[in-house]
Amino acid sequence: MKMVRGTLGMIALSWATAAGAQVQDMPGGPGVNQLNLHTGVTPIAREIYSLHWMMLIICTLIFIGVFGVMLYSIIRHRKDKGHKAAKFEEHLGLELTWTVIPFLIIVGMAIPATRTVVAMKDTSSADLTVKVTGYQWKWGYEYLDGPAAGVQFLSNLSTPQDQIDGKAPIGNTYLMEVDQPMVVPVGQKVRVVLTAADVIHAWMVPELGVKQDAIPGFLRDTWFRADKPGIYRGQCAELCGKNHAYMPIVVEVKSQEDYAAWAAKQKSAMAAASEDPNKTWTKDELIAKGKQVFSTTCVACHQANGQGIPGTFPALNGSTKFVLAPMKGQIDTVLNGHPGTAMAAFRDQLSDTQIAAVITYTRNAWDNAGKGPDPVVQPSDVKALR
Predict the structure, then answer these.
(1) What separation in angstroms does the CA of 30 have from each of 40, 138, 147, 184?
(2) Which of 382, 365, 350 is nearest to 315 (CA)?
(3) In what order do the strands lie in the sheet with 138-143?
(4) What phi, psi does 51 have (nearest 5°)?
């Protein structure tokens, strides 16, 4: 038996050592064996860190004091030593002491905490305002002022599907990487206005000291001012459905000059990417573009093989109700969603060209090729039904 326990212990130790060697600190994210909050790169984050330490020390001292006295009394005044319990009904001085001291402790904790909470909610005098919209399961960013005014994009998880499926080694930023991060300038107060298009989400970046709910139909705001350039990572902090773990947040803080250059580049890219909704695309062009849209927007629910998830997300492969039916029904569903189901409306997320492309892709992918009417959908078809 001792030999068996020893062998099992060695196996467990070897496994733990190997696992520890593989896991590394994530740049801008959590660290290995991190036991405390992030020290942060914003004034609010540092205040939260200091408050956490202050509260922890006070609570630890109270714990030691209370349980120390209790254990001392139990051991020192136990019955087998002949100790007899004191008999008294009231003691004004003692009652005042254990009332006043906790009150003073609470006030001493509340004053700095209240000051920090008030500062967290002061979004006035911002240098830059960014609207952030939560979707299942991605984030939308729209810059409302400053050099990047008018820039907007969707930020999707960029971890390769092979890593998620366990077919490839995971990277150091596994599930915490995106195709397009939010970019802000260093040293400027950034106001973040939050809402959601479907369910409640929460925008949280620990290094920035920010966590705010995004609620459908409401606008909530928060702010941060990063002191140094870098990449800082966070996640949706509100359980929001099947792929809740797959909607990371990445904020890249750049110098003023680099931010201005990024803003100009984004505006140029948006102008170059603007598409004529009346253009007639070839079938191959639409399928190629639609495959990209499907991989970032649709694959989480309907799966790469088009089979969906039985009972939750319907299959697109062989779907005679939508995909292998006249295109009007499928266009309407993608634009406006399907009430009573998890199918969201994409009219505000995707352009006419993207919707036409992804519908064309689904009508020609898997076993759907060559079946059903309307194998090609043009942007003008989508525009007509908006």
Answers:
(1) 11, 21, 32, 21
(2) 365
(3) 152-155, 138-143, 128-135, 190-196, 220-224
(4) -60, -40
For 341-371, write each residue's pLDDT tens digit: 878 888 888 889 999 999 999 999 999 988 9
| Entry pTM | 0.76
Confidence band, pLDDT 50/70/90 cuts, at residue 19: very low
Fold of 283-385: Cytochrome Bc1 Complex; Chain D, domain 2 (1.10.760)
Instruction: Find the helix or strand (DSSP H, E) in which 5 lies.
Output: helix 2-22
Place of tokens 């905490």: 113
Judge contact between 188 and 196, C-beta under 8 A.
Answer: no
> Residue 90: its pLDDT value, please?
77
The first and second tokens of residue 36, run together, are 């405390």
Instruction: Say how many C-beta atoms besides its own lie within 10 A of residue 158's C-beta.
Output: 16
Separation between Cα atoms, residue 369 and residue 338, nearest integer Å: 25
Instruction: Indicate if 283-385 has the same CATH topology as 128-272.
Output: no
Question: What pLDDT is stored for residue 105 in this prediction?
Answer: 92
